[in-house]
Amino acid sequence: MNEPTAYGRWAGHETAAVEVHTPTPIIPAHTAPLMPMQPGTIPSVASIMLPDGRVVTGYALEPAKPEPVAVKPAVSRAAVNIALGGVGFGAVCGGLFLLTAFITALTALITQLIVLTAVVFGGWAVVQVLSASGHRGGTTVNIRKAVIKRNKFYG
Fold this sequence. Notes:
Blueprint: E1 24-25, E2 45-49, E3 55-59, H1 77-133, E4 147-149, E5 152-154
């Protein structure tokens, strides 16, 4: 009968009722004036008296706070980079298209100005040539006074 069981108790011994004692904090009879301190530099010291009369003094421990977890963005950085790259590529393509359209329009304008210049100055040159050839090297004859006899002109 005096053999230990699987749980470390001796056979034949019943477990007695357990009393729970709640420690009561010691309140000092006189309170010293508080010294100004920066918060968090010196932790507060607590003293409690156990039921058997012993006094236990120690620091109050704050529960450990877990470090905040880094919040992941809703969209991955790679997706943002790809989207921004696409926007940039579209902007560059649009800019190149506008540049090409501007160069084409400028080329057409210059071509039209060259053609207009050729027509205006070409026409002026033709007028100068044709008008100068009518006055060159001849005598003006008044036909009404002229006499033609035997197919010969006498002016």
